[in-house]
Design goal:
Layout (H helix, E strand, L loop, with lengths): L6 E3 L5 E3 L15 H13 L4 E3 L8 H10 L7 E6 L6 H15 L6 E4 L7 H14 L5 E4 L3 H9 L6 E7 L11 H7 L4 E4 L11 H10 L3 H9 L5 E3 L6 H10 L6 H10 L13
Parallel strand pairs: 3-4, 4-5, 5-6, 6-7, 7-8, 8-9
Antiparallel strand pairs: 1-2
């Protein structure tokens, strides 16, 4: 049995595992439903109790997969879901959250994120998030795909200081946030949540991390995931639709990369030397 997953702490005091589970592309094919549910349930068994989803994923279908996976286990799980910017008005956020809760079969969402910036003023969206907090429908809120200037603006908006996380694309091939956003988030005590921490499967086939993996008895994907988890304030949310893949992800959390490993990865995947636009999928 693997050791427990290391945790990090959100600004509101919630302790969450640094390795969670993503659900992007789940719920798109009912023939895969049983495998997706089984994968999520195994992940919970292995300590990956943070599950990330969104109303956008399969038009709510991913949330329904999550509902089935957490049935009878709701209190073991830290749920994260996201509202589309087109629903980010004061009334729209409340309505979207209630619909997500219904699909999830839950009475609360631990962390509710704005999926990306749209045309609705941040102050209006934050006011809606705070209303949902008061109602107990969410326990905290955050943002996703916010670059440095977005986070600076957010901090100036009334209520912006209550942000709990920023979920962004972050992996060996997309590490622009290492230049400014990640250090600033760390200084502010706001953990970053990394989606696609092994890319779109690209890093699973990349020989560069594979060479390091041979030293650890690990795959390229596991080395890429371990690299993302090297940072104490990063939460990774890889998706896995098979039981073997879930086990592989969980094992990656126990890999300790040496200073030499990290230096080699910096040489193979150089850190940014200047500001880059935020990568998104």
């Amino acid at each position: 049995m693997p050791s427990s997953v290391r945790t990090t702490t959100l600004p509101n005091g919630s302790k969450v595992p640094v390795l969670g589970q993503g659900t992007w592309k789940m719920g798109e094919d009912r023939r895969r439903r049983a495998d997706e549910v089984a994968a999520l349930r195994l992940g919970i068994d292995l300590g990956m109790t943070l599950i990330d989803t969104a109303e956008m994923y399969a038009d709510g279908g991913a949330e329904e997969v999550v509902r089935e996976a957490i049935e009878g286990r709701r209190d073991e799980v830290f749920l994260v879901s996201k509202v589309l910017p087109s629903n980010a008005s004061r009334a729209g956020v409340v309505r979207a959250c209630e619909q997500s809760l219904k699909r999830l079969g839950a009475d609360r969402i631990e962390l509710y994120l704005l999926h990306w910036r749209g045309s609705v003023p941040l102050a209006e969206t934050i006011a809606a998030f705070e209303t949902l907090k008061t109602q107990g429908k969410i326990l905290g809120w955050g943002v996703s795909n916010f670059d440095m200037d977005d986070m600076v603006e957010l901090a100036s908006v009334p209520g912006g200081e209550f942000v709990q996380t920023n979920q962004v694309l972050y992996n060996l091939s997309s590490r622009g946030i290492d230049y400014d956003l990640l250090p600033q988030s760390e200084r502010g005590g706001i953990p970053v949540m990394a989606y696609s921490p092994v890319g779109q499967g690209d890093l699973t086939r990349d020989r560069r991390p594979a060479a390091i993996g041979e030293r650890h008895g690990a795959t390229a994907a596991q080395i890429a995931l371990a690299w993302t988890l090297r940072h104490p304030h990063v939460i990774a949310i890889p998706k896995a639709s098979s039981l073997d893949h879930v086990h592989d992800n969980r094992s990656a959390a126990d890999i300790v990369l040496s200073a030499a490993d990290l230096a080699e990865l910096d040489r193979l995947f150089p850190p940014p030397s200047r500001k880059r636009p935020l990568d998104m999928i």
